[in-house]
Amino acid sequence: MTARWATATAFLAAVAFATAVHAQDLVVRAGTILPIAGDPIRNGVLVVRDGKVAAVGADVAVPAGVPVVELPQSTIMPGLIDANAWEGCRGQLSEESREVFPSYKVARALDPDSPQLRQLAQRGTTAVCLSPGHRAVIGGLCAVVQTAGPTREAMVVTDRAALQAVVGWEASSGNRIPWRESPDTFYYRRPTTRMGVVWELRKAFFSVTEEGQPAPDPADAEVLRAVVAGQLPLRVAVRRMIDIETTFRIADEFGLHNLVLEEAFEAFKVADEIARRNVPVVLSNLFYLGDGQPQTPEMHLNNAGILAKAGVKIAFGTALSDGRPDLLTCAAIAHRYGLPRDDCLKALTVNAAEILGVADRIGSLVPGKDADFVVLSGDPLSVTSRVEQTYLAGKQVYNLR
User: Fold this and answer.
1) pLDDT for 160-213, tens place per residue?
2) Which domain holds residue 250?
3) Quick check: is 295 in a domain?
């Protein structure tokens, strides 16, 4: 009986192992494949092996014994990448008891069971950049995570995508000086002005670039030095043109050459300068109407198009979008108001991957990259197109049907 049980167990284990190995192997035939790295492929074939893109093209041999998915009326493109998201975390996005916390990792707050991440996958988003939020001058390290996965560790592509900072009013909003009353919360603190925010940011980099200054915590100092050395991008949330210009002055002062601008509602006013500095921009909420603050920025519905025409690499994020419109809607709006089609598709995929430093894995359908892709009912920039299926590493994580 023991021998039979052992034999049966071994057989079931072998079957389970074989299923696990080949579950990520498949072939998809589609009416159109948009690899992004090349021209559209009509009646294309996508071959997935071990979770990676093995081949893509019009005349690709179909391996024997591999399941074939027939989608003659559908369009396939790489999984969408949200380059600025505040979804999928437990609790607060940032440690608000400190204004400067470079070593904080937002990936630690990732909730692998988040219903918000599942919703993003249903919208065709396969990866997001989690930001620590804007309640601190330096909030910590951004993370690139997948929208589905068995564990937190498996979902994290990198927990060190960029260092998040803020220039503007948000980091000081709500702070106050105690004056005569006793402070009862940590919001009795500085900075309380825009100048104070800039001072805190400069002080942080001053502490690791000038001799004789009080040294910050070793973990914080390591992150700040990596930014100064250009090894880690400094990602700065800016809204107004004055914030962008202030960021560039700070960058020049400390020799910071690896910058990313986030939100950047008034970037169209200084598009040529942004392009000259080769600074990419992650645009959020393309139809932002203001939040009632005195510093409400001026908007231009073709902000994305003006930046792209100047030669600025752009991507899209949904962190500030009321009602959380999906990325395809953001791209459709940008296209309607002037952003060329190819730039729209790149902003959704490969541009975002390059800005986040993960283009070696995701962002386009080329052999060797992760088989993350989305199946659409029609053209990606048509408002009537639906997300029909979403795949991560060749495994289906969403099916509309």
Assistant:
1) 999 999 997 665 555 555 554 554 555 555 565 677 788 889 999 999 998 877
2) 80-362
3) yes
3-state secondary structure the chain: CHHHHHHHHHHHHHHHHHHHHHCCCEEEEEEEECCCCCCCEEEEEEEEECCEEEEEECCCCCCCCCCEEEEEEEEEEECEEEEEECCCECCCCCCCCCCECCCCEHHHHECCCCHHHHHHHHCCEEEEEECCCCCCCEEEEEEEEECCCCCHHHHEEEEEEEEEEECCCCCCCCCECCCCCCCCCCCECCCCCHHHHHHHHHHHHHHHHCCCCCCCCHHHHHHHHHHHCCCCCEEEEECCHHHHHHHHHHHHHHCCCCEEEEECCCHHHHHHHHHHCCCCEEEECCCCCCCCCCCCCCCCCCHHHHHHHHCCCEEEECCCCCCCCCHHHHHHHHHHCCCCHHHHHHHHCHHHHHHCCCCCCCCCCCCCCECCEEEECCCCCCCCCCEEEEEECCEEEEECC
> Do 74 and 84 belong together in one domain?
no
226-258: per-residue pLDDT in tens? 999 999 999 999 989 999 999 999 999 999 999
Number of domains in the chain: 2
CATH of the domain at 17: 2.30.40.10
Global pTM reads: 0.88
